[in-house]
Specification:
By secondary structure, the protein is an alpha+beta fold. The strands form five sheets. The protein has a three-stranded antiparallel β-sheet with strand order 4-5-6, with no helix packed on it. Helix 4 crosses helix 12, helix 6 crosses helix 7 and helix 8 runs antiparallel to helix 9. This is Aminotransferase-like plant mobile domain-containing protein. InterPro entries: AminoTfrase-like_pln_mobile, MAIN-like. It comes from Pisum sativum (Garden pea).
Length: 344
C-alpha cells in the first residue's frame, strides 16, 4: 500500500487478499473497511461465512477433494420398485388427503451430480439464492407448487429433535413395533433415526396384516424420507418426522411445500461450504428447477408435452439424459450466462 497526493492506493498481498486500509490522519477508527476476498465480496458484512465457502477455495485452485462433484443420492429407482402403482383403498384415502401423493412418481431415476454440484457452488446461505453472473436467482414456493404439486398453504410445523428413548416410543405407539424390536433398531441406527429399508419392510408387513394405519404411517415416513426430507446418510430418516403422521386425518393441513423448500435451503447452505462433500434434501426439486429455467445448461430430456399432461406436476416433464459435461466444464458455462439464457 502506498500514498499518492493524499490518496491511499491499496495493493494485493502475496496471498492475493486486499489488506485493511490504513486510516488517513484524523479519520475515525470506527470506519475501517472489512477485508475483501479476490474474486469474491469486498464487503464481508453480508456474506459472513464466505471464508468457508467453496468458491473462495476454488479461486485458489483448491477443490473439495479428488472428486469435484458432491455426493448426491436420488431415491428414484428405489421408489419405483417400492411404491406400488395402486395402494389398498384403505391406505389410498389417507395418502391422497395428506397432500403427499404427488411424491409417489415425481423423482428422477438418476441425478446429474455434476450439474447439481456446479449450481451448489453458487449458492449462498446468507441470501438463500444462487449468485449468477447477471444477478441472484432462487427456488420459490411457486416453483415447488408447480414442480412437485405439494401444498404451499397450511401449517408450517417443524418437529423438534427427539431422543433415542422417544424414538423408541414413537415406533411402538404409531408403527406397531414391539419395544424390544424398536430398541434394537434405534440402537443399530446410532441415533434417533429409522432405516428406510426397515420402514419399507414394516409397510409390507402391516399391509399384509391389514393394519392400515400402521402401514400408512410407515409408507408416508418412507416416502418423505426418500424425497423432501432425505438426509445426507441416504439410508436413514429422522425419527421426529413420525410426529407429523400421528393424526393421519390432520396431516393434510401442513404446508409440505414450505417444509420441502426450507429443508433444501438448509442442505444447500451446508453443501456450499468447502468442507462438505454431500448434499441432502430433494435433488429432483433442484435439478428440475434447473431444467425449467436454464434450457442451455446440462442435458435435459422430455417425457411429455405440457399441453398433453396438464394435470401432472412439472417435474414429471423432465428426465435424466446422460451427459458428458463435468463440473470443470460447467463452471465456465455458468460464468457466461446472460438473462437471455434464462426462461423467465
Amino acid at each position: 500500500m502506498e500514498e499518492r497526493r493524499g490518496v491511499v492506493v491499496r495493493r494485493r498481498g502475496a496471498d492475493g487478499r486486499i489488506p485493511v486500509r490504513t486510516l488517513d490522519r484524523g479519520a475515525s477508527s470506527s470506519v475501517a473497511e472489512p477485508t475483501g476476498y479476490p474474486g469474491g465480496p469486498y464487503d464481508t458484512s453480508l456474506l459472513v461465512k464466505y471464508e468457508h465457502h467453496v468458491a473462495r477455495h476454488l479461486w485458489f485452485g483448491e477443490e473439495r477433494g479428488p472428486k469435484k462433484e458432491l455426493k448426491v443420492a436420488g431415491h428414484g429407482l428405489k421408489l419405483t420398485s417400492r411404491v406400488p402403482l395402486a395402494l389398498p383403498p384403505q391406505m389410498e384415502s389417507w395418502v391422497s388427503r395428506s397432500g403427499l401423493s404427488s411424491l409417489q412418481r415425481t423423482s428422477l431415476n438418476k441425478i446429474d451430480t455434476n450439474l447439481v454440484s456446479a449450481f451448489v457452488e453458487r449458492w449462498h446461505l446468507e441470501t438463500s439464492s444462487f449468485h449468477m453472473p447477471f444477478g441472484e436467482m432462487s427456488i420459490t414456493l411457486d416453483d415447488v407448487a408447480c414442480l412437485l404439486h405439494l401444498p404451499i398453504r397450511g401449517i408450517f410445523w417443524s418437529p423438534q429433535d427427539v431422543t433415542e428413548e422417544v424414538a423408541v416410543e414413537l415406533v411402538v405407539d404409531y408403527l406397531g413395533v414391539s419395544r424390544s424390536q424398536a430398541q434394537s433398531h434405534v440402537r443399530s441406527c446410532r441415533g434417533s433415526y429409522y432405516k428406510l429399508e426397515w420402514l419399507y419392510d414394516l409397510f409390507v408387513q402391516h399391509r399384509a396384516a391389514s393394519s392400515w394405519a400402521y402401514a400408512t404411517r410407515a409408507y408416508l415416513l418412507m416416502l418423505v424420507g426418500s424425497t423432501i426430507f432425505a438426509d445426507k446418510t441416504f439410508t436413514l430418516v429422522e425419527a421426529r418426522y413420525v410426529l407429523l403422521f400421528t393424526d393421519l386425518d390432520g396431516c393434510s393441513g401442513y404446508s409440505w411445500g414450505a417444509a420441502a423448500l426450507v429443508t433444501l435451503y438448509r442442505y444447500l447452505g451446508d453443501a456450499s461450504m468447502y468442507s462438505c462433500k454431500q448434499l441432502g434434501g430433494y435433488p429432483t426439486l433442484l435439478q428440475c428447477w434447473i431444467h425449467e429455467y436454464f434450457p442451455t445448461v446440462g442435458k435435459r430430456g422430455e417425457n411429455w408435452k405440457p399441453a398433453d399432461k396438464c394435470g401432472l406436476s412439472r417435474s414429471m416433464r423432465w428426465s435424466y439424459r446422460q451427459g458428458v459435461l463435468k463440473v470443470d466444464d460447467l463452471r465456465p458455462i455458468l460464468d457466461e450466462l446472460t438473462p437471455a439464457d434464462v426462461i423467465w
